[in-house]
Design a protein that fits this description.
Order of helices and strands of chain B: EEHEHEHEH
Shape of chain B: globular
Protein name (chain B): STAS domain-containing protein
Number of helices of chain B: 4
Strand content of chain A: 25-35%
Bound molecules: adenosine-5'-triphosphate, magnesium ion
Distance between the termini of chain A: 19 Å
Oligomer: heterodimer
CATH superfamily of chain B: STAS domain
Domain STAS (chain B): 1-93
Number of domains of chain A: 1
Number of strands of chain B: 5
Largest interface: A-B, 27 and 21 residues
InterPro entries (chain B): Bact_StressResp_Reg (IPR051932), STAS_dom (IPR002645), STAS_dom_sf (IPR036513)
CATH architecture of chain A: 2-Layer Sandwich
Helix content of chain B: 40-55%
């Protein structure tokens, strides 16, 4: 499990950035597209099947929130290669909905404003190495990353 | 997309072969519950070998389905869960608690028969013979 959720990877060590996929989230099937795009990116980078599944599951949670609470959005998957050879997959899900009123509360397991179990964001935090949420009315971005050494 | 539900006597078999949207999964759940409501079955074997992702929504739906089927007097056995999916669910803290599992459909049917048999025996013992 990756509880080192708040670790920062300094951006300065990045030698290359690449956008691997952009998926527009406006209906339920787009959640499936986004998560299989994520799995494919991870597979091509040589991430193992456990990491592929963690990533696809996290993307599923993020994309569903954008659809259900943000009336849809965009899922962008970027890969970065650090100087030390570290590979990072960065998933950015953005929507233009009402925003998350209290981010700290939204991250608490069990909190849901939509009749869910409130397990989505806590799951993303556990499955990924890092999670960052920036939200205000009209623009919410949820960024999660997973890094591995080849 | 509709997922076929097969009937083998009073056992229902259904195998999810592709990724499901939330609505597809919800529809499958409604159809299963409808069949138990009409009392056409004693149990369900639900094969999820086609699912490479089970997120919090799907986990909740599976749990809920099993609970509701049981409330209507039926039993559910889940089969074919990928090891990666099981591991991810444990990491998420969303264990599929309270659902019987088996490795594949065949083992699932055998497991379901045992569970139903054990339950029938319990209920018969509980009854006062006339
Ligand atoms: N993109 C978003 N826009 C607005 N609010 C959001 C967004 N994402 C999450 N939230 C808020 O954060 C809460 C917690 O989200 P989380 O994904 O953890 O649980 P949930 O979606 O309610 O239930 P679950 O994911 O378990 O089905 C949501 O109920 C909602 O209030
Ligand atoms: Mg959610």
């Amino acid at each position: 499990m990756h509880h080192a959720a708040q670790r920062h990877e300094p951006k300065t060590s990045t030698v290359s950035d690449r956008v691997d996929a952009i998926v527009t989230i406006k209906e339920q099937t787009d959640i499936l597209h986004a998560r299989s795009a994520g799995r494919e990116v991870a597979r091509q980078l040589g991430f193992g099947t456990v990491d592929q599944t963690r990533l696809a599951t996290a993307i599923s949670e993020m994309a569903r929130n954008a659809l259900n609470y943000g009336k849809g959005g965009t899922c962008t998957i970027v890969t970065e290669k650090g100087q030390d050879g570290r590979l990072t997959i960065r998933v950015l899900v953005e929507d233009h909905g009402p925003g998350i009123a209290d981010v700290a509360l939204a991250l608490k397991p069990g909190f849901s404003s939509g009749g869910g179990l409130g397990q989505g964001l806590p799951a993303v935090r556990r499955l990924m190495d890092h999670l960052e949420i920036d939200s205000q009315p009209g623009r919410t971005t949820v960024v999660a990353t997973m890094s591995r050494r080849p | 997309m509709r997922i076929p539900i097969l009937r083998l006597g009073r056992i229902l078999l259904t195998s999810v072969q592709t990724d499901l949207t939330d609505d597809d999964a919800g529809q499958l759940q409604a159809e299963v519950l409808q069949l138990f409501h009409r009392d056409v079955a004693d149990g369900l074997v639900l094969d999820i070998s086609g699912l490479d992702v089970v997120d919090s929504y799907m986990a909740r739906l599976l749990n809920e389905t099993a609970r509701m089927v049981r409330m209507m007097g039926g039993e559910v056995v889940l089969t074919g869960m990928h090891p990666m999916v099981a591991l991810t669910l444990v990491e998420m803290g969303q264990e599929i608690i309270g659902i019987q599992t088996a490795i594949d459909l065949e083992a699932g049917v055998a497991r379901l028969r045992e569970v139903i048999h054990a339950r029938d025996k319990r209920t018969t013992q509980g009854r006062t013979t006339p």
